[in-house]
Amino acid sequence: MRGEAAWIRRALAAHGLRPKKWRGQHFLVDRGACRRIVAALEVGPRDLACEVGPGLGALTALLAERAGRVVAVEVERGFEPILRERLAGRANVELRFEDARRTPWGEVVPAGTRAKLVGNLPYSLTGPLLGAVLAAGDRFERIVVMVQREVAERMTAAPGGRAYGFFSVFVQAHARVERLFGVPPQAFWPKPKVASAVVRLWPAPWPGGPEARTRLIQVARMAFSSRRKTLLNALAQASGRSRADLAPTLARAGIAPERRAETLSLPEFAALAGALLAEPPRGG
Fold first, then answer.
1. Domain containing 146: what range?
2. What's the pLDDT tens digit per position in 237-252?
């Protein structure tokens, strides 16, 4: 770890750069953790590996040794000379300097190509970045991301737990999720104030199709908009429909009105979405 951290400090100083706290720039310096992350991605000579936020290239260099092609998307343009120096001679690496939330993944990953994606996601941008990647989920057969430990708990939470919420439903509606291992603050330079965890996702189509998944997410967002309220009251407030109007809808979905959003499983949210959105709203 000391060797990588020392190299990073020298490289940044040589270019007059310092880590930017507002961008969550904490560089992974634990080479063992880097190897475990790349191993979890399971890339080979025939694979296209995409990386979000390569930073100074610790993961990128390992990916270049294993994957047929690597596309790394970095928002910090100042890192370009360091990355190009570190990856010199790696003809299979393409660097893109842009905001990964706006990267046209459908263009980066050609139609018919199943790529794999890895990323050390800034804590403040995990939701938007992961949302952008999952929106192009049909392009990725596997995703491995490092996130704040609490975010990993939310991503993998089951119904009924304190960590289970809208973000849990959103992620799990797009992919099967598994938590792999934790990463302590001392694995980074500079050290963050929070612990991290590595999560692997297996994107999959929703059984009812993309429109059904969109409806499920829409209803889950309404249900969690007032988490402390019963499902009946939360939906009434979010949808503008009366409790008397919504009660039969919940009954048709087989869901008791006094339940709360955090107790519903994905299939139950799907049933609720089908019942709630299959009928036009009525006054009352």
1. 2-203
2. 999 999 999 999 999 9
